[in-house]
Design brief:
Layout: H1 7-17, E1 19-20, E2 28-29, H2 31-63, H3 69-96, H4 115-122, H5 128-138, H6 143-164, H7 171-191, H8 198-201, H9 210-228, H10 249-268, H11 277-309, H12 314-328, H13 337-360, H14 371-377
Antiparallel strand pairs: 1-2
Length: 410
């Protein structure tokens, strides 16, 4: 297939898309075309992030003992369902409605489509044009596409806790915590930055959620691990560490690849727009940085495990990829790709370093142990308060690296 597209074909395609004013400097699209592409970006990237739920389920199922795989799968499909319901009922409003540089949004229940969009859907032929103009005047994307994209992030935070507390908590107590996390904890702290709250006003920025999603889940997971203690049989009478190998490493590997795939939606969709050439170019950079960081995390874990343990360890290398992914998530818009490789490599290295440290502390987190550690050390970038806020409107720009997601194989 010829990959060189002729100029005439480009012109026809742009005309069909509503591109106007084509010149040497700029080719602007119509407001409606930008609305369509922005909405599409939210939806398709949200679907990719939703697919990460399957990745979490596969990775967790592969790294626990076979007798617990059914409970793990049940927890993962249940937490996604509950997180979606709670974020619709109250969470989204707490996070985004009338935060006003403060600490919390409003307790408005059942977030619904914008009135202008409902008016457009129900307008007769004579009123379609006016209703369409009203929608484009009020927003550059569909309100419910934004809700969907934000919702799948909540489930990711809950999945982090699920992995850490695997094999040590019953299903119903965990799901009760998911209700609290998705309805109250996550929305309130998220409003501080992405809802234009007090932390954003001070200049804090997090492009795609290293701190607001992964660190929140990581700290909650660490708290749960400290409260519940180690899995039964993990430590011997004299304090020795007893390995608890996963039941299905091919399944864990598949889960890692699914997470890697879904992360392109996680980071790429956080550009929050696809209505211009600049947005498309920015998303391409984000995709490349995301991939480079994950690959660097794997290679760093491979090298360190060989040096430290005299052989490479599959579970640490799998989680090295996740370490690199979360490390780059605060700033995947970096325009120097070498930085993405460095950041991802540090994330993967922290996986390997954190495992023996966590074992010595007798905490035993086989999932994301260094998320809170990396968050505390680095955090996302503090930007000038004169710059645009990070997440509450399309075309945001952000930050430098934050914490990685990591794991201990026991």
């Amino acid at each position: 297939m010829n990959r060189c597209i002729k100029p005439a074909a480009i012109a026809v395609t742009l005309a069909a898309m509503g591109v106007t004013g084509i010149g040497e400097a700029e080719a602007a699209v119509s407001a409606e075309t930008a609305f369509v592409f922005n909405t599409f970006s939210f939806l398709i990237h949200g679907v990719l992030v939703m697919f990460m739920a399957a990745g979490f389920a596969m990775l967790e199922s592969g790294l626990v003992r076979s007798k617990n795989t059914a409970a793990i799968c049940l927890k993962n499909i249940a937490l996604y369902s509950i997180a979606g319901l709670m974020f619709y009922i109250v969470g989204y409003s707490l996070m985004y409605t009338d935060v006003g540089k403060g600490w919390i949004g409003t307790f408005e229940f059942l977030y619904n489509p914008a009135p202008a969009e409902l008016a457009l859907l129900n307008a007769d032929d004579a009123g379609k044009a006016a209703a369409n103009a009203a929608v484009l005047k009020d927003s550059t994307y569909s309100s419910m596409s934004d809700w969907f994209f934000q919702m799948v992030f909540v489930a990711t935070a809950a999945s982090i806790v699920s992995g850490t507390l695997a094999e040590r908590i019953k299903v119903w107590p965990f799901l009760i915590f998911v209700v609290i996390l998705s309805a109250i904890i996550y929305p309130i702290q998220g409003s501080w930055v992405w809802g234009a709250g007090w932390l954003a006003e001070m200049g804090f920025s997090d492009f795609a959620g290293s701190t607001l999603v992964h660190s929140t889940g990581g700290w909650a997971a660490l708290a749960g691990a400290l409260v519940l203690g180690a899995r039964k049989g993990k430590f011997g009478a004299n304090g020795q560490v007893n390995p608890m190998p996963g039941a299905n490493l091919p399944l864990a590997t598949l889960g890692t690849f699914i997470l890697w795939f879904g992360w392109f939606g996680f980071n790429g969709g956080s550009q929050l727009a696809l209505g211009s050439a600049a947005d498309a170019a920015a998303i391409a950079i984000v995709y490349v940085n995301t991939n480079l960081a994950a690959a660097s995390g794997v290679v760093a874990a491979m090298i360190l495990t060989q040096l430290m343990f005299k052989k490479m360890d599959l579970t640490l290398c799998l989680n090295g990829a996740i370490g690199g992914l979360v490390a780059i998530t605060a700033g995947p818009d970096l325009q120097q790709h070498a930085y993405a490789m460095l950041i991802g490599g540090i994330g993967g290295a922290l996986v390997v370093i954190a495992v023996p440290l966590i074992d010595k502390l007798r905490i035993v987190m086989w999932w994301v142990p260094s998320q809170p550690i990396w968050s505390a050390v680095s955090g996302a970038r503090w930007r000038s308060v004169s710059s645009d806020p990070g997440r509450w409107s399309p075309s945001s720009s952000a930050s430098l690296p934050s914490e990685p997601s990591c794991s201990s194989p026991a």
